[in-house]
Each structure stands twice: as C-alpha cells, then as structure tokens.
Amino acid sequence: MKSFPDEVEITVQGGAGGAGCVSFQRAAFKPRGRPDGGDGGSGGEVVLEASQTLRTLSHFRRRRLFQAPNGKPGQSADRHGRSGPPLIISVPLGTRVYDRDTGELLGDLLNPGERLVLAHGGRGGKGNAHFTSSRMRSPRFAQPGEPGGERRVRLELHILADVGLIGQPNAGKSTLLRALTASKARVGAFPFTTLSPQLGVLFQEDEEPLILAEVPGLIPGAHRGKGLGHRFLRHLKRTRLLVHVIDLSQVNPGDPLAPLKELEAEMTAFDSNLLDKPRVIALNKIDLLAPDFPRQQVLKAYEDTGRRVLAVSAQTGLDLDALRQAIWEELRRCGHDLDSAAIPE
Ligand SMILES: Nc1nc2c(ncn2[C@@H]2O[C@H](COP(=O)(O)OP(=O)(O)OP(=O)(O)O)[C@@H](O)[C@H]2O)c(=O)[nH]1
Ligand SMILES: [Mg+2]
Predict the structure, then answer these.
(1) Does any ligand 1 atom lie closer than 6 A to the CB of residue 23?
(2) What count of Cα atoms within 13 Å lies in the side-chain half-sphere of residue 268?
(3) 114, 49 in Cβ contact below 8 A?
C-alpha cells in the first residue's frame, strides 16, 4: 500500500564514542614518560524537535536512517576527543513518537522547540592515562568508545487542526476547504480524491484564524479499515469543532438523516468521544437541488437534531459567509478559548 506522509518509521543511531588514546609523554632522555592518552569524546545523540514550519512528515520519504556523528578519539598530551554534536531532526507539531518494537509511546511533541532524545550517543573510551596504578605504570591499552544507542521508531502526525471537515466521499469537502481558505486541495468528481488530510486557514476580521482540516471521506466500515477514513479519524481527536459536510443533492427525502447517521456510526465505532465535540452541519450542493426537492422538510429534520445547520453551495459560494460565522459562534458558544492552542484529548 502507498505510504502516506502522516505516518513513517525511521531508524536512529546515536554516534559511537571516540576511542581512548594510548600515548606516553615524551621528554628528553626519558624513553617512556607517564601515560598521557586522552579520553575519546562521546557520540552525538539523536533528538527530535518540534518545528512550527513543517506541516507533514513527507520529508522522511527519502530518508529513513539517521545517524548522529561519532565522538573523536582522544589524543596524546591528555587531550580529550571532541564530542559528536547532536543530530536534530525536525518534525511538525503534533508528532507522536512510538517505539516500533515495543509499541511504547515515547513522546508527543506539541509545542514549538519541544525536544525528545531518541538515541543516546556512546560514551567515549578512557585514555591510558586513566589506567596507571602502582602495579601498572605504563598501561599500553585504552578503552574503545561505546556504540551509540539504536532505536526504531514510528512517527505519527496528529494534525492540530481547530476544525475538522468530515463527510462521505465526494460530498464536497475539498471544494468547501478551497472556498473557505486558500487551500489548493484537489477536487474531483469521484470518491476518494483526497488521500491524505488537507489543511487550510480560515481568516475572519476580528477573529482568531482557525486551521481547518479535511479528513478523507468516511464510508461505513471505515473504523475497521474500509476506505481511507480510519487512518485519519485520529486527526479529529484534537479538533475543537467538526463540520459535517453532507451532499444534500444525494439525500433521500424519505430517510433524510441517513448520511449523518452513517457518519456518526463510524465516529462512535472509532472513538465515542468524537460525538461530544461541537458540530455544525453543512448541507452542500444546494445549487443542484431539483425544484421539487422538499428542502424545508429535510432542513427541518436536520435542525431537529439540535445542531446548527446551514444549507450551502461550496461551488457557487452561496451562504458560505453564514457557515464561517457559524463556526466561530459555535466555538464561542461551547466555551472554547479561541486564543489557546488545540485542546488536549
Ligand atoms: N454543483 C456543485 N458541485 C459541487 C459542490 N461542492 C462540490 N461539488 C462537486 O462535487 C465533486 C466532489 O467534490 P470534492 O470537493 O472533491 O469532494 P470531497 O468531499 O473532497 O471528496 P473526496 O475527497 O473524494 O472524499 C466535485 O466534482 C465538485 O466539483 C457544490 O456545492 N455544488
Ligand atoms: Mg476531497
């Protein structure tokens, strides 16, 4: 299966320590002076660092092995080898790190500049200067450097979006994302155009900008791995609000709430806490409705669920301003502090 840039496995190796040095002081008329071999430097460690400028893990596509520099060997005259500098690997905010072999969660990098040491550098070996004793005046050996730590880790990106757009394939999520933000998400007249989460920023005067994420289309069984959606449902965990995008032109007036129920069933099966999030319903493609479509009746059925409902056209832009407004109002109504970072799960 094609690998998506929101989950990668990498191997990291700390640098090896430098070897200790075997050396003896040289002085005139003294064939062998005291031992003066310096210690090797320690190897560099491998560190992950959360960076605000990265949005995906796609930079790991080409490189999977990361080795920190080794420590330099010790030298004569008690000079110690230089330590290997750390190898710092940048990852986007919201990257979770798991040990690939044990499955253990090693860390969750949420704040800019936050760091996590993945592999320690090896200790440098001691030089022969360390090994003199009353019995041994001239040790002709030194310690080798220790190898650095090695670890295989899985990085998972949990996008820190404020608002998740969620809906059936082809409902118009990408079109909506493009209409509301400067996103260039691909729009296609077929299901599963969007294969990985897409982001955009929603701006409004006098309001905090919000990050919107389109999550690939959900179909029944998504939580069990059908389609693509389940891989991405986890991105929704940290959103503060969900917008359900429903293709109104495909709604059967005899069972108008079916698409919503389908989405809710998938969300519950994945994580029932998702249903507690504030939600807004966007009934899309209103421009496609046949004149005899019982629009009021269908709208009422949705309104009776107690949620904010807006009938819009992502394509023509009809009532998108009202949808924008509703998103902020709903966030405020639910008491979210719009200045704070994404709320933890
Ligand atoms: N007439 C009309 N067509 C729309 C509207 N919104 C989206 N479409 C069309 O519906 C099709 C699907 O749109 P997308 O935005 O790709 O849908 P999506 O929900 O992102 O689909 P996936 O990413 O495949 O899950 C495209 O052909 C769009 O042009 C709308 O409001 N009116
Ligand atoms: Mg799409």
Answers:
(1) no
(2) 7
(3) yes
Asked if residue 37 has its Cβ within 6 Å of ligand 1, the reply is no
- Convert the pLDDT of each residue in 79-126 to its tens digit: 999 999 999 999 998 899 999 999 999 999 988 899 999 999 999 999
- Of the ligands numbered here, which is closest to the C-alpha atom of 287? 1
Ligand 1 atom at minimum distance from 313 CA:
31
pLDDT at 67 over 80: yes
Distance between CA atoms of 12 and 99, rounded to whole angstroms?
11
Which residue has the CA at smallest separation from atom 8 of ligand 1? Answer: 172
Reported as a pLDDT band with limits 50, 70 and 90, residue 33 is: confident
Specify the pTM: 0.67
Same fold, 1-158 and 163-333: no
Answer whether CATH 2.20.25.530 is correct for domain 163-333: no
Superfamily the domain 1-158 falls into: GTP1/OBG domain (2.70.210.12)
Say if residue 208 is exposed, middle or buried (CB neighbours under 10 Å; 0-12, 13-18, 19+): middle
CA 80 to chain centre: 40
Ligand 1 atom nearest 193 alpha carbon: 24
Ligand 1 in reach of 194 Cβ (< 6 A): yes
Domain coordinates in residue numbering, the chain: 1-158, 163-333
Range from 110-114, 162-166, 202-206, 287-291 carrying the lowest mean pLDDT? 202-206
